[in-house]
Amino acid sequence: MSAAEPAPAWSSGPARRGSYSISAVLELLRPEFPTLTISKLRYLEDQGLIAPQRTASGYRRYSEDDVDRVAWVLVQQRDNFLPLKVIRARLAAIDAAGGTGLTAVRRPRSARLDAEDVATVTGQDAGLVEAVAEAAGVPVRSADAALIQAVEAVADLANFGLELRHLRPVFQSVARQADLVELATHAVQGRGSAAAERAAAAAAECADALARLDAALLRLKVAHP
Questions:
Q1: Global confidence as pTM
Q2: Backbone region of residue 55 per phi and psi (left: phi > 0; alpha: psi in -120 to 50; beta: other values)
Q3: What is the rounded CA–CA span in Å between residue 138 and residue 160?
Q4: d(Cα 77, Cα 23) in Å, to the nearest integer?
Q5: How many CB atoms are closer than 10 A to CB 122?
Q6: Residues 63, 210: Cα–Cα separation, whole Å
Q7: In this structure, how many other beta carbons lie within 10 angstroms of the beta carbon of residue 224?
């Protein structure tokens, strides 16, 4: 982390006042992160990136520092394309230093990457980036953190002898799952920005559930061939 980047405050010091339910946090952050879901907030907690307090009844209560921390993590994923393991390491170092006053650092959201940019971020060849984008059926110019993560995953799988041609069934399965997401969220589609935001949020939550199902079933199949 550069010296100019603000350090987040978290459990290392007293939390700032404010007590929000998980749904209230969602309402606060969705204008900036429209695809944020309750499942995503719970996942960040499972990964040890946030630790909201619990009431006697077991309900989560987020302080203002917790909300800032969630926003910071989401910005690092969306704008800086950082994987969670890197984000976790940076937060651990900042927490250990007792940093305070977390502020999410953003770059313009309109910025788009080309194949060379993605290649630089991932350390892979631009040809591989274009091949992954083509297999996924998306233009490289629409690149975001998801394409970067896909390229990194394809590169990791190459270490096991799995080339892109071996992964065609995976890409085909994803295309079918995308059709399921569209089918499941068709009812919330409509005109206007509010409807578009609801549809995007519903699609993201549905895609998240499908991804978790896919991962769980794969683990089951590998454990019980």
A1: 0.54
A2: beta
A3: 25
A4: 21
A5: 21
A6: 30
A7: 6
Is-contact 153 211, C-beta < 8 A? no
Class of residue 190 by CB neighbours under 10 A (exposed 0-12, middle 13-18, buried 19+): exposed
Q: How many CB atoms lie within 10 A of CB 109?
A: 10
Q: What are phi and psi of 71, to 5 degrees?
A: -60, -40
The structural domains of the chain, with segments of one domain joined by +, span 1-111, 115-223
Is domain 1-111 annotated with CATH 1.10.3470.10? no
Please give the distance of CA 200 from its chain centroid, rounded to a whole number.
14
Q: How far is CA 115 from CA 101, 119, 122, 128, 154, in A?
A: 36, 6, 10, 9, 15
Q: Quote the CA–CA distance of 50 and 87 in Å, as a whole number.
A: 12
The one-letter code for the residue type at 175 is: A
| Tokens coding 222 | 């590998």
pLDDT tens column, 108-137 = 444 456 788 788 878 899 999 999 999 999
* 75 Cα distance to chain centroid: 9
